[in-house]
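assembly run, all chains below
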Amino acid sequence: DIQMTQSPSSLSASVGDRVTITCRASQTITSYLNWYQQKPGKAPTLLIYAASTLPSGVPSRFSGSGSGTDFTLTISSLQPEDFATYYCQQSYSTPWTFGQGTKVEI
Amino acid sequence: EVQLVESGGGLVQPGGSLRLSCAASGFIFSSYTMNWVRQAPGKGLEWVSYINGVGNAIHYSDSVKGRFTISRDNANNALHLQMNSLRADDTAVYYCVRDRREQLGFWFDPWGQGTLVTVSS
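ok done. output:
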């Protein structure tokens, strides 16, 4: 199984801060990497797919980069609605696996 | 609007069974692979199972293989998960999730609101 490791597990930030979350795969997954956002008590929602593509409706302050084994999610200017937990997920091979999550707190 | 609505969760004793359902609307259900993903209380996300559009390709995580059975009813736009021999560590919110597959890969979108399964005596 491909292990996905996120860092940090949690972080404290302020509105307007630039935030970076990293995700590392235990083997190459090329660009088969997705990011999800989950707010408390809610289902996850798709944030970025194929490592760097934003679905329609996702604000441009979110960006993703990376390929191979190392990936990054960046929020250029943190907004109040961005306080949530973020998960990476590989879609390279089954079983599809997620990182452990990164909680972004005030 | 694409909608996925889960039902069937509840409290069950260890060793018991439960059947989850997911009602899909707003898209051509039979054209999409569907998944179940679960989340234990306070924990991260764990993919459980998928089934392709016609139902002839199925895959399970090792943690549920032999105990859970995924199925679909394309005539009624429904996805099911039959869960047998339930254990305490199966306690989780279970999400019904649609696949989106393109040349760039695939991703989970959208997700249902989830249904809580609690395994406890």
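Chain A touches chain B at residues 31-32, 34, 36, 42-46, 49-50, 53, 55, 87, 89, 91-92, 94-101 (CB under 8 Å).

The mean pLDDT of chain A is 97.

not gonna interpret more than that til we talk
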